[in-house]
Amino acid sequence: MYAPTMFAALRRCLASPQPQLRLSSPLRCLHRRNLLPRTGRSFTTALPPHTIPAGQKIENPPKNILIVNKLRTQPVILAIAAFLEHVHHTYPGVRVFHEDRDDIPHGAEIWRPTSPEKIDLVVTLGGDGTILHASSLFSAGAVPPVLSFSMGTLGFLLPFHIDDFDKALESVFTGTATVLHRMRLACTFYDKDLAKKSKDGDDWQVMNEIALHRGSSPHLNTIDIFVDGQHLTEAVSDGLIVSTPTGSTAYSLSAGGPIVHPSLSALVLTPICPRSLSFRPLVFPSSSIITLRIGDRSRAPAGISMDGRSSHVLSPGESVVVQASPFPVPCINRSSIITSSDVEHMRHSEGAGPGKEDDWVRDINNLLQYNATFRSKALLRHSRT
Description:
Elements: H1 5-14, H2 19-24, H3 27-32, E1 56-57, E2 64-69, H4 74-90, E3 95-99, E4 109-111, E5 121-126, H5 128-136, E6 146-150, E7 160-161, H6 165-173, E8 178-182, E9 185-190, E10 204-206, E11 209-213, E12 221-227, E13 230-243, H7 251-254, E14 266-274, E15 282-285, E16 290-294, E17 302-306, E18 309-314, E19 319-324, E20 329-332, H8 340-347, H9 359-366, H10 377-383
Parallel strand pairs: 2-3, 2-5, 3-4, 5-6, 6-7
Antiparallel strand pairs: 1-8, 8-20, 9-10, 9-19, 11-13, 11-17, 12-13, 12-16, 13-14, 14-15, 16-19, 17-18
C-alpha cells in the first residue's frame, strides 16, 4: 500500500545500466542518493562485540568515590551522613565527591563531568532512575564501577540495601567484589543532509533504551529500519524502541518485547502499537548497526526519549544510528557480600551457588512475579524469597 522511498531508489539502482554497481553493492546507490548516513564504519562488516568478563573483580581499591542520590528526603540525608562518616573513619585518605547541586552534603567535594579528578567508584542511593542518571554523567567515555543501594524502592538495578553499605564497601576495598557489565547504546543523530547534528555533540550513551514515538501527533510514524545497511522494513506505528538487555525489563517489556538476560550482548527492537499485526519484536547481535530514518512521507515527526529523558524531535528525512557502546556500565553484584554462613545456607536450598550471578533470576521472580498464577498477594509474598 505504501511503497517506501528506499524500495523505489533500490529499483532504480537495479535498473541502472552499470552491471558492476548492480552486482557488487546496490546499497551504494542508496548512499549516493543521500538516503543513509555514513557512520565511518562498514555496514556489511560486523563490529567486534564488547567482551564481557564473567565475574570480573575490582582489583584496586578506590581513591575517589562519587555519590549520586535522588532528592534528599530525610532517609537519604541520614544514609549519606552515615556513609560519609563510615568512609572517612574506615578508609582515611579516600576522597568523596558529589555532583554539583544545591544539596551537596557536608564532607563531600564538588564534582562535575569536566572535573579533572578520576572517579574510581560511583555510589548511588535511590531507585533505578538514579543509576540511569549516574550513567548519563559519563556519557562521553568509560563508566566507573557502580555500587547501587536501594532506598526503599524496588528495582532491577538495586542489588544492595542501604543497611549493607559497610559490607558492600568492604568487598570493594578488599578486592572481592564482582561486577556485571551492563551494555549501553551509542546513538548518533543525522539531519536530512546526512550531517551529524552539531547540537548533539558526541554520541549519546543510554543504558535502557532509545524510543522514537509520535508524541502528541494524532498520526502514526513512518520509519524505515535498516540493519547493517540492509532495509529491514517500513514501520508504520506509534513508534519504535531499541533497548539493551537491561532495558528489556523496562519500556520494551511494556510494549510486548522479550526479557533478555543482562549478561547477553544484544539489541532488542520492539514496535509500539504497530499497524501490522505481523510486526513482532526482534533481537539482534550486539555487532549490528540499526538505522532508523523518518520516512519522507511520514505524517508525524518522531519525538526522541532516551532513558526517560526527552532530547529533540526527528523530522522526515532525519535519522538516528544505534549500535552497542564500547563503554558498558560495570554494576557490582549482590553476591559480592555473601558470607560463609550464607554459603552453608545456600548449599541446603534451591538456586544458584554462591558467587554465581543469580540476582536476575531472583528479580524476575520477586519483582515481575514471573509466571505467577492467579493466587492471592499474601501467598505470593511468601512463595518466592
